[in-house]
Design a protein that fits this description.
The protein is an alpha/beta fold. It is built from 12 helices and 9 strands.
Length: 300
């Protein structure tokens, strides 16, 4: 069976090593292009979407849109990029003309917007203004959900009511969901105490992710990081069924942030198709096909 060369919907890479580590636990600095290329070759990944970081809540050092554009131009075998826009840009107003910024970065080759990490309510008027212009410009958005205060990511409560309201308000905008607070809601037994963690055990009926995926065709899912991997593998039968059911709206990803990161999803997907736990059609879409269509950049 032919293994698919995957497209990574979510990675962070910078041109040069920075002396500022992302935290004090040894997580390290972003992988540079050579380091990332070596990781990709070992994981069977063709190329990835480099996501800038500009919002102060998630920024250890600034990875600008311009640097991401330069990297995509200098290393086209490894990168395409999204532009990152903070809802407070311009004049910190719900009237900011984000189409001006979006069209500029589209002209540099940006394929979407993200990772949105501003710690503002999901339905804040400034956030919705950004979404309005993203919808007008035909750019998908990739978001991180966070807690209110002392965190990063758009704020939503247990049950994701603000996300649901937003999905209904912008039906023509593709949203790619990400983070522990997003993926823990795949199970109906999630609580406020564990929704920011990596819950274990069988997935129970009533998960909000399932309800939202069934109710809103514009909700897509970023499978990157430990949160996406955990959601699929904590209950393998459920995870494989989830892949089959929503195969047109799921995207392989890594969220590699340092050369030492361990990434398990690529080989797990390979194992699932080789053991007939998922179909080859679903495997191809999740590994590559969906991203190629979203990014409009299929390669030989």
């Amino acid at each position: 069976m032919k293994k698919i060369k995957k497209i990574d919907i979510h990675v962070h890479s910078s041109m040069r090593k920075n002396g500022i580590e992302r935290n004090k636990t040894g997580a390290g600095t972003y992988a540079n292009p050579a380091e990332l290329r070596a990781l990709y070759d070992g994981l069977g990944i063709d190329f990835g979407v480099n996501l800038p970081i500009i919002s102060p809540e998630a920024m250890h050092y600034c990875l600008t849109n311009e640097e991401a554009a330069d990297m995509a131009r200098s290393f086209p075998e490894t990168f395409v990029f999204f532009c990152c826009l903070d809802p407070r840009m311009g004049s910190n107003s719900q009237e900011t003309n984000f189409s001006y910024y979006i069209d500029y970065y589209k002209g540099l080759g940006a394929k979407g917007i993200g990772e949105i990490t501003a710690n503002l309510p999901f339905d804040d008027p400034r956030v919705w203004n950004l979404f309005k212009h993203a919808e007008i410009c035909g750019m998908p958005v990739l978001f991180h959900i966070g807690f209110e205060k002392n965190d990063y990511g758009l704020i939503d409560e247990l049950g994701l009511p603000r996300l649901e309201k937003t999905l209904a308000a912008f039906p023509d905008l593709i949203f790619l969901g990400h983070s522990q607070k997003f993926w823990s809601e795949i199970s109906g037994d999630v609580t406020g105490e564990i929704r920011g963690q990596y819950p274990a055990g069988p997935v129970k009926p009533g998960g909000r992710i399932i309800e939202l995926m069934d109710g809103y065709g514009n909700l897509h899912c970023d499978l990157s990081a430990g949160s996406g991997y955990n959601a699929l593998t904590r209950d393998v039968d459920f995870g494989c069924g989830f892949i089959e059911k929503y195969q047109d709206r799921l995207y392989f990803g890594t969220d590699i942030c340092a050369p030492t990161n361990e990434m398990l999803l690529s080989h797990w997907l390979d194992d699932m198709v080789e053991t007939n736990r998922i179909s080859y059609a679903a495997y191809e879409k999740v590994s590559r096909g969906n991203a190629a269509r979203l990014l409009c950049c299929e390669r030989d």
